[in-house]
């Protein structure tokens, strides 16, 4: 359904309530019974209804503002990407409205509504869950310009992203190629349905004829350095300890590196470590850290260009397109040799 085509009257006709009742229900007015409000909200969702002020902004394009929804502003890669996106949009005459979900799906839904309420012309988003994206898909179905910065080719949504599965495969294969057979995985994304890095890790093991050992896959329950430190401690408590570790981001890998140094393990001779994202701190760690590179400039430019094309598309958005960038492994001291 095109922009601005669904009215309050359409929802009223669908539900049998008056337009005033529909309006109050969609504003969550306590004057309307909860059961009625829910029935009206469901009807609005089925019709891909957007509030009038959103529809008007989509038609006028006068706000010249883009919403950017991040999972975690403290993540160095996301901070760098946010800065690059802001600059790229400014060059095109757009302001950026930032919001953060703090890696919570419920918060993501709230901030999306907040961003939309500010009448932005389009949205760039790092989804908290790569699989639970119906609330984002609803925007696309309503002809709303939205581009994800993490993507699934089968999502039915526009996305520009690094191929995380391929990157994890390359990182794990690198560890295998330098002689490691017991490779630990520190990755907290799987409970959210973000399986790409784990899939790449397992694929590389299978290709090399190595069996996946669940005891070597640790959920750090976070993404920070201290979470990586604690995850490394858990890995080293297993009966058959790993000789190498792949971490889903560089902060976790730096935590693992810190654990090794504190416990007198030499990196890379006693333990090889590789991260993901290639943040600035990785290169300047006490043992320079190998990492899968996240090409911020490429992702930023392609994502902004795609969003601009959606904004100027008119009443019907083009077929969704997913662009996945094949990342490279940056080899540094933390994996240069094996004992």
TrEMBL record:
PROSITE patterns: HTH_LACI_2 (PS50932)
GO MF, one example: transcription cis-regulatory region binding
Domain HTH lacI-type per the UniProt entry, residue ranges: 6-60
Signal peptide: none
Pfam families linked: LacI (PF00356), Peripla_BP_3 (PF13377)
PANTHER family assigned to the protein according to its UniProt record, in alphabetical order: HTH-TYPE TRANSCRIPTIONAL REGULATOR GALS, LACI-RELATED TRANSCRIPTIONAL REPRESSOR
Name under which the protein is recorded: LacI family DNA-binding transcriptional regulator
Organism: Devosia litorisediminis
């Amino acid at each position: 359904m095109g922009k601005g085509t669904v009215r309050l009257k359409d929802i009223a006709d669908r539900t049998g309530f008056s337009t005033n009742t529909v309006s109050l229900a969609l504003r969550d007015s306590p004057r309307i019974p909860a059961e009625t409000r829910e029935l009206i909200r469901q009807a609005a969702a089925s019709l891909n209804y957007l509030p009038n002020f959103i529809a008007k902004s989509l038609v006028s394009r006068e706000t010249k503002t883009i919403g950017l929804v991040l999972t975690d502003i403290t993540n160095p890669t996301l901070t760098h990407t946010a800065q690059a996106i802001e600059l790229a949009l400014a060059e095109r005459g757009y302001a950026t409205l930032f919001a953060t979900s703090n890696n919570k799906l419920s918060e993501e839904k709230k901030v999306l509504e907040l961003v939309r309420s500010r009448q932005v012309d389009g949205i760039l988003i790092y989804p908290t869950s790569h699989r639970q994206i119906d609330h984002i898909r609803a925007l696309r179905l309503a002809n709303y310009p939205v581009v994800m910065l993490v993507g699934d080719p089968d999502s039915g949504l526009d996305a520009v992203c690094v191929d995380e599965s391929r990157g994890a495969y390359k990182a794990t294969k690198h560890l295998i190629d330098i002689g490691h057979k017991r490779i630990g995985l520190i990755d907290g994304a799987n409970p959210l349905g973000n399986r790409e890095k784990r899939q790449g890790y397992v694929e590389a093991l299978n290709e090399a004829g190595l069996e996946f050992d669940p005891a070597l896959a640790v959920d750090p329950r976070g993404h920070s350095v201290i979470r990586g430190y604690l995850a490394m401690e858990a890995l080293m408590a297993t009966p058959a300890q790993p000789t190498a570790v792949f971490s889903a981001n560089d902060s976790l890998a730096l935590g693992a590196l810190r654990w090794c140094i504190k416990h007198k393990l030499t990196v890379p001779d006693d333990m090889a470590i590789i991260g993901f994202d290639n943040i600035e701190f990785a290169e300047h760690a006490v043992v320079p850290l190998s990492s899968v590179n996240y090409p911020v400039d490429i992702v930023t430019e392609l994502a902004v260009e795609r969003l601009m094309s959606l904004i100027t598309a008119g009443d019907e958005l083009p077929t969704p397109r997913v662009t996945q960038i094949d990342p490279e492994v940056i080899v540094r001291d933390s994996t240069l040799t094996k004992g």
